[in-house]
């Protein structure tokens, strides 16, 4: 996905994006995922489990899971039914069992036991789309090929007038066009924290939100 040039990016949106980023940095000088993990592989597992599930629930499940399955080979050799029982509290647990155990074999056989770093390679793993790949790249490797667009980013980017799109890929393109590249890495994490702490999707006194002046 190529970033549009500054000439095609709306000047006003770039100015607003810069102000929003500055405000988010003041609120969240340290930005990272709240998912708990000890390695890039465990981050992959946690991110896949987090789809349509709260991070709090994922952390509860992985606290036990990561003690039982300590190495990549533990996942490669895992019994699917037993693994599924370990994550049964997670939504879509059977599909996620299939993705995670399939990815373990692929990482071992095709990537020498190491979670790949590139967007292209990450997206060959089961359960990984652009959003998941962006999160893994940013959190595990400090790499930003794009910007993860989850429900918080989608909702708030539209509220703030940074995009009019509804498709995550198109929203990502709009954000890449107006955000300085050095801010791609942590934008998602800061917006997610802001959405949870101050501006949730549920009804609330929006005028009290710290960034309500932006929309």
From TrEMBL:
Span of domain HhH-GPD: 49-197
Any Pfam family hit: HhH-GPD
Keyword Transmembrane on entry: no
SMART domains found in the cross-reference section: ENDO3c (SM00478)
Cofactor note: Binds 1 [4Fe-4S] cluster.
EC number: 4.2.99.18
InterPro entries in UniProt: DNA_glycosylase (IPR011257), HhH-GPD_domain (IPR003265), HhH_base_excis_C (IPR023170), HhH_motif (IPR000445), Nth (IPR005759)
Keyword ATP-binding: no
Necessary cofactors: [4Fe-4S] cluster
Class of the enzyme per the UniProt entry, highest EC level: lyase
Superkingdom: Bacteria
Molecular function GO labels: 4 iron, 4 sulfur cluster binding; class I DNA-(apurinic or apyrimidinic site) endonuclease activity; DNA binding; DNA N-glycosylase activity; metal ion binding
Reaction catalysis annotation: 2'-deoxyribonucleotide-(2'-deoxyribose 5'-phosphate)-2'-deoxyribonucleotide-DNA = a 3'-end 2'-deoxyribonucleotide-(2,3-dehydro-2,3-deoxyribose 5'-phosphate)-DNA + a 5'-end 5'-phospho-2'-deoxyribonucleoside-DNA + H(+)
Keywords, alphabetical: 4Fe-4S, DNA damage, DNA repair, DNA-binding, Endonuclease, Glycosidase, Hydrolase, Iron, Iron-sulfur, Lyase, Metal-binding, Nuclease
Gene Ontology annotations of biological process type: base-excision repair, AP site formation
Family from the record: Belongs to the Nth/MutY family.
Function: DNA repair enzyme that has both DNA N-glycosylase activity and AP-lyase activity. The DNA N-glycosylase activity releases various damaged pyrimidines from DNA by cleaving the N-glycosidic bond, leaving an AP (apurinic/apyrimidinic) site. The AP-lyase activity cleaves the phosphodiester bond 3' to the AP site by a beta-elimination, leaving a 3'-terminal unsaturated sugar and a product with a terminal 5'-phosphate.
Protein's name in the database: Endonuclease III
Designated gene of the protein: nth
